[in-house]
Amino acid sequence: WWKELGLAKELKFARDQPVKWYIWSMACLTDPKLSEERVELTKPISFIYLIDDIFDVYGTLDELILFTEAVNRWEIGDIDHLPDYMKICFKALHDMTNEISSKVYQKHGWNPLHSLRKTWGSLCNAFLVEAKWFKSGHLPKAEDYLKNGIVSSGVNVVMVHIFFLLGQGITKQSVELLNETPAIISSAAAILRLWDDLGSAEDENQDGHDGSYIRCYLNEHQGCSIEDAQEITITLISEEWKRLNKELVSPNLFPAAFTNASLNLARM
Hints:
about 0% strand; mainly alpha; globular; Farnesyl Diphosphate Synthase
């Protein structure tokens, strides 16, 4: 699928790591029977990384604004004003999302297109907020960074796709709750974002500037040592684990396979 898509050739600046992307799927969905779902899930995961690289490494702010507007409108005939590399990416994203929606509808009788479009729009909106912060040289407060970073982690995109690919417990009520990013998703996202920020963007050999919780915290609390900021970050991770564990043992609208995927994602 990845080779046929041809995006690695077209978007030379972006990461080309399909095995790594598949490992996320494998970690989230451990049931041997879910092979097809793991393959399908790897597709949106690859686009999270691709779009992240467009925002962090390559796109100008004006281009990023246009791309975000295009994703929020979701009109394939409305992308003529985008630069070529963004046209290619948006068309591939659009086609993949429609294909997954069609498969879910055929298998489970629910068309998830509205939810999938919404989560891609939210992701690009969050990426754009970060791009504006860091291109202006303005670091946000640590709390504001984390609130946005929970969305820009891409966890919501992954979990929304998992929910529909599993096809269990799909009701109007559960879909509405899913669309509001419940704690079962946001806590896993906070854990991922904060652990990621304890490392650094240098791990990815990128030139991008997408900030970190620790950097924002140090900027906000002048005189605080980096060790203290790291301790505070680890304490926050611990709090999010408590919140996630509470969700896992409390009655909720989501099937066990979905809540287990959230737990596995946080573990990974």
